[in-house]
Amino acid sequence: METTCVRLQSATVDVIIKTHPFAEILYWGAHLSDFSPQDVATLERPVANGKLDVDAPVTLMAEPGHGLFGSPGIEGHRSGLDGSPVFTTVHCEQHDGSLTLLSEDTRAGLRLQSEISLDASGVLKIRHGLTNVRAGAWQVDRLAVTLPVAERAQEVMAFHGRWTREFQPHRVALTHDSFVLESRRGRSSHEHFPALIAGSTGFSEMQGDVWGAHLGWSGNHRMRCEVKTDGRRYMQAEALYLPGEMALGEGETLWTPWLYASHSANGLNGMSQQYHRFLRELVIRFPENKPRPVHLNTWEGIYFNHSPAYIMQMAEDAAALGVERFIIDDGWFKGRNDDRAALGDWYLDTQKYPDGLKPVIDHVKNQGMEFGIWVEPEMINPNSDLYRAHPEWVLALPDYPQATGRHQLVLNLNIPAAFDYLLERMSWLLGEHDIDYVKWDMNRELVQPGHNGKAAADAQTRQYYRLLDTLRTRFPDVEFESCASGGGRIDYGVLTRCHRFWPSDNNDALERNAIQRGMSYFFPPEVMGAHIGNRHCHATFRQHSIAFRGLTALFGHMGLELDPTNADAGEREGYRHYAALYKQWREVIHSGTQWRVDMPDATTQVQGVVSQDKRQALFSVSQLAMPDYSLMPPLRVPGLEASARYRTTLLDHPNIQLTGEGGHTMRKLPAWMTGTQTVSGAWLMQAGMSLPVLDPESAILIGFERV
Ligand code: DGJ
Fold first, then answer.
1. 4 CA to middle of ligand 1, Å?
2. Residue ranges per domain, the chain?
3. What does pTM read for this prediction?
4. Is the minimum distance from the CB of 333 to ligand 1 under 6 angstroms?
């Protein structure tokens, strides 16, 4: 069969794929204003001396049989046989922006289906389905999606983290060998968010070629960026299988999770903007397109201390502050007085709620708010009625002790009776009560996850999806939040089935600036829970002004994580003010183009949103630590319309005092701050505007209105 080339294109990205005799991605980069298939001949490689006598392509399945030598895209065998498949394309179909390839290795008895699509946003989606077409199980050790990136991608950015410190970016120079991250924790994890960004040297928010890759999967995973000894490089992403975990019987198919990839020739902002647009157009769905309501979540306000009368008072106070959705967190179910007991016993605690939940829900609704509730279905405390009745329902390998985490173990959702029990209890909760919202938590990692003596991490993740999917089908108007000790389960796999993430248990505004910025590389603000916490942050014991807390929570889905009833008048006024500011701007924030601004002084963090029609923009400047210089650099405002003029207004600021009036950083404010000024978009983008000298841990908000 002759060599055939397929082109997938969007306004910003092109992908050129050779389809025969085997599939190979020849180009993934900036949109080509002109291209003909014969152009690819310029990329035909020489054969270097001292190696194989033939060219070794990095094929779509990265088979070692082509002489790859690097990390393969497929590893497995049939009792030791059929262990090195090489696929040949047998069928290829292109529809608009998508390509389906069918290939097979008749010697190994395997068939492969590859689905590749490039969305108008510029996001490339790829997955493979491997089918065993011969008798005898084919043991799958690895099945990955491989994506070549250009040789100039010399640096890799990834995210590390831990509980209360999620989404911390770090970078490595990658000139040889590989960079690998793995989660073996049974969830996407705080520690190893399933994404990699490869980029040209020194890539930044505004500059450089970047290639982002995110695996939409909430379980164990492996992400890799590999440099071959000939200098070519590729990214690889896969669900990670434990020993013996995955085998395909005859006729069975295993699909990889979707890999979502975004190339930008304009730095990280371009990459993120494509991801955000893709999610908004194709993934995120809010019932009735409802604006994201202001939350109050009870956790840091009352913890396990539930009294209906007090909660109703909290609800009244919350409504008076502008809260639109009131969520009762952990502590409402039978025997749940601390975190040592009761997970699994999904019955109302009638000692705490002698009249049931209904009066509380009615009260919340009478205040004009929606009602939400917390659950953690996948878990079981050894001190629970459920465990006493069904100790065999724990996800474990027989005869090995399981270490508890937060005093809890994991329920084996692969046991039909356990799955059905949870489905019945959750259906009772959502069916018998007028509940609009569920905060679904998951606070323990999977250790030696086993079912019938075999590893079962992958199966557990699939059952979690099935449980959530079934509940969503039964209760289509209920919104779900994904939480796992804060940000332990944040990925596109779960985003296809939920409406919001809880990024972190850390509500310290300083820490949140970093966490939310890290998360923003892949997620838009409307799915990022961002709550104003107590003045004394519970996670760090730092204290922050209400202005710093409020402005930090503004660029997400805002809420309060506190008890409004015992807050002083000044604090309450602050909550009211920022809830109102959020409502005023949420439409722009949740639909506009998001920008992170490169600042020469890393102690200053700037982000903003420009409305799609470029008529309005909102930028916040957060001073995270003592500035390196005595003056802040001018802010060059990205994303505006060059030919338009904008009215610039200081919308919100801390209590700035000049020297002589009690302050110590400035004798005189920048001139524009003392009034409203009209400036050209081109000037704002190229020359910028002076910033005030801010105290550490404070922020200002600047608005731009087209005139
Ligand atoms: C962990 C979550 O991250 C918190 O927000 C809270 O819901 C607690 N669990 C409740 O136990």
1. 53
2. 5-282, 295-373+427-443+477-591, 595-706
3. 0.98
4. no
